[in-house]
Request: fold
Amino acid sequence: MHMQRILPIEMDKAAGKVKEQLEQVKKRLHRVPNMHATMANAPAVLDAYTALGASLSHVSLDAELRTRIALTVAAANQAQYCLLANAEAGRAQKIPDAELALAREAKSGNAKYQAALKFALAVVEDMGQVTDADMAALHGAGYTDAQALEIVAVAAANLFTNYFNHVVATKPDFAGEPAKR
Reply:
């Protein structure tokens, strides 16, 4: 891994809006991860990221599925920082390590979750050009059109963080492994 290309804003050196943003992140996460502190170099980017996350917390897809989608997308993009961050989030949600590892392969012991993960992977790998068969498989698993759109939104939000961390070469600041098999 390269040295981090854009350095994070240190909490004790932050001022004004940036300080407020980082304090909000710390309040919510009990720390300020490097990705958030680096996004603070462009306050509008951190605002956009946190607003998108807040909006996606209100979709009908449960948090455990959203975390699994994040792992599927991060694995497809070889996004190490996001693999570590989302494995930590999954462990906090009490998702077994075996399920976290399966999510990296767009798989799950839960058939309905697996259909969503396969669809998210198709969205990423085919740059949104999913097939009628992809949609039919998702609908066949019991997902609605609205949930298909939610899966696209969750996948796209994770593409943003994957690409952000690739560009920046964000230094991982999460303990543990990214849930390998």
Notes: The CA atoms of residues 4 and 170 lie 5 Å apart.
